[in-house]
Amino acid sequence: MSGRHTMPPAGRRKAAAAAAENSESASPEPETVEESIAEEPAAAVESADAESVVEESVDAAAEADEVEADETDAEADETEAEETAEEPAEPEPSRARSRVSLPVVLGALALVLALTCGVLRWLTVSEDQSATARDEAVQAAKEITAQMLSYETETVDQQLSAARDRMTGDFLGTYTAMINEVIPAAHAQQIAAVAEVLRAGTVSVKPGSVEMVLFVNQSVQVGNHMPQKTPSVARATLVKEGDRWLMSEYEPVPL
């Protein structure tokens, strides 16, 4: 018998069974590691996919905003284009044309100013002349009226005849016929008269002719009686012959 210890068969079987159990209990650990390793890439993939989806959503939203902004700009451009098309195009004046037009405009303005000044001067002169004619005619009418209606008994012939020198037209003949009756009556009845024009108002003023209304007061004395005052209104017309104003019409107006 040798010195090495030999295990009996029954013992060897038990040892083998124990070893097998030990190996089975130890083998599941690698599977768990493998499962954890396998799960980690899957989670990473899922995270990457989620990030990709988020990025795609952001990109899609940005693209939608850009499309909407482009559409808004396009609509604004179309609206502006339509408004521009509706408005008539204003031709741009050329510099050469403006250079040529400026002297023409200035010349036209100068002509207008000259004409305006001329018209104003003419109107001023005409007004001055009309005022002068009116004043001269009114003064002449006062003098002529007082002269032809005033007389003394002793000098009636000379006075009334002298008044004829300041009359013209048909009125000269009418007045001559009147004084041919007044002069004999003044001598026979010792009649004397004094007349004055209280007021005079012009009706119309024309070149060389002035029409007016005269308010006359005449005092007539017969013999030794008290003078009798007689007011009257007459329409008179004076015309200018040469440098003199002559009475061409004198017509009493009924009161």
From TrEMBL:
The keyword Membrane applies. GO terms for cellular component: membrane. Residues 1-98 are annotated as: Disordered. It is found in: Membrane. Residues 16-30 have a biased composition (Low complexity). Keywords: Membrane. Signal peptide: none annotated. Its main location: membrane. Residues 48-90 have a biased composition (Acidic residues). This is Mce-associated membrane protein. It comes from Mycolicibacterium septicum DSM 44393.
